[in-house]
Amino acid sequence: MLMGFSTSWSARRRTLYSEAAYALGIVALALGTALMERADFGLSMVVAPAYLLHLRLSRAFPAFTFGMAEYALQAALLLALTLALRRPKRAYLFSFITAVVYGLTLDASMALVALLPGGGFAARAAFYLAGLPLCAVGVSLLFHTYIPPEAYELFVKEIAARTGANIHAVKTAYDCASCAVGVALSFAFFGVGHFEGVKLGTILCALVNGPLIGLCSRGLEAAFEFRDALPLRERFERKKKR
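RE: above sequence
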């Protein structure tokens, strides 16, 4: 069973299939982002530009959702990556499919979270404190699957591989660039000094997100043995190189 958890007696860990980790990771990441959006303390630097794009364009086009902004921006990022490297890969297409799946799940999560009661400071703090670790768990789960990730993670990996730079340094540079873009879009769309999407919660997320993801990954690896339920890993690995 794809979602099955079978006991591994030798390692005293349960088996979590990587395909299930992909699905659970998408749901956890989308739900965590929706909770942080409801808190309105600031989103992560990575998703802030897409959120600001959604806020601005939804004024003229109410049907333009946060999820749509996510995969529209990721499509542009994949196009920029293709032009920069001058070598399109099939993995980019699968990465976009992941972005669309995530975007649809995000919109569903936004609708679900909107039904939750509470608008005071305590409720908002609870939403943020629930959303932040959920996002970390989602990213950790996605790290344990062979299915191509969203464009954000793929962009960092590809640039690091092409330039030979340390991937953590590239990730830090990308996060800083995303933060700068978020601030610039907030000022451009809503006026200088008016912050939307990028707030104090964004800074807190930037400080704790990396260590929190590492902690979640270690916890998952201690509790589960990740295996493939479907014989697709080699196919995806070949397509990543094309």
